[in-house]
Structures are given as structure tokens and as C-alpha cells.
Amino acid sequence: MDPNLAYDLSEFGHYGYDPGTGASDPDFPVQDQYTGTWAMYEPPDDDPGVGELLAKHVINAIIKPMVYLSNGETAGVTEGESVTFTPHVVTGGTPPYIYEWSTNKDNAGWTTQGSGSSWTFNTISGDAGTYAVRCVATDSLSESGEVTWDDFVVSTP
Predict the structure, then answer these.
(1) Selection from 32-36, 57-61, 100-104 with the highest mean pLDDT
(2) Is residue 77 part of a domain?
(3) Which runs of E-coded beta strand occur in the chain?
């Protein structure tokens, strides 16, 4: 990734900030120093979790698989319903990938749910609670990356 493209809009503007043009202005941070066109990155499937994931894992992006989960934007289900979680490798790693799934109900510890390119949570009576769903992606060079979907709720009917 080009470090010139990774910046925050602090009081100093961007990578090309020139103090010779005057004091910084937080209401107009780039001070007309850059001419060109900016485009906003749109994550795959318009999933806002990608931005959060990228912010946490950019350092490992070249070596380790960087993964995010999608489930149709479902925040929870009622006991007896099902939802399928699917991992998406954004970048990094060397295919093919192996996916391992686990859940953590009400912070009681991780329970292995199996492996596969997706995982369907088939809830039954007694499953009500708040879950974290974790997927660990391991590539062909044994490098791994993981992602957790926190606060997935299974409610009673």
C-alpha cells in the first residue's frame, strides 16, 4: 500500500501538507494543495465491518489472510431459525484456504463448530444468548488470520 494514500485528516491535513501556505484549518484540512480526484473505497457487499477490519489488521495484510464475515447483515435470530456465516478473504495469504469455526456463548469459552467454506448456525430451543462467532482462515503456507463477529443474539420466541 502506498503510504501517501494512508493518512488521517488531522489538523495538518494530508501527506503533502505545506506549512508555508499558512496555518492549518481543521475545517478545510487539505488547503487546496492536492489537485485530483478522490474516490471513497466501497467494501465488498457494502459491509461496514470491512473498514473496521482493515483498521485493525493492515500490518498483517500482506502475509496473513485478512478475512471478514458476512451473513446477510443479520444481527440475530430467534431459537429455531438458521443463519449462514460466510468468510471472505480480502487480501493476503496464499490460496487455498481452510476455515475453522467456533462460537463463544455469553463469554463462557470457545466451542469448536467445525470447518468449511461457510457455517450454518442451526439454532434450537435452549440456544438463547449472545454469541461471538469466530472464523480462522489458514492458507497453504500455514499462515492464519481470524475474524470474530461479536454480539450475535439468539432470542427466545
Answers:
(1) 100-104
(2) yes
(3) 66-70, 76-78, 82-91, 98-105, 110-115, 119-122, 129-138, 144-155
The DSSP string of 57-93 is HGGGTTTS-EEEEESSS--EEETT-EEEEEEEEEE-S
Range of the domain at 118: 64-155
Number of domains in the chain: 1
Q: Is residue 40 part of a domain?
A: no
CB 114 within 8 Å of CB 101: yes
Q: With contact defined as beta carbons under 8 Å apart, do 76 and 82 qualify? A: no
The answer to whether residue 4 scores a pLDDT higher than 50 is no
- Write down the pTM of the prediction: 0.61
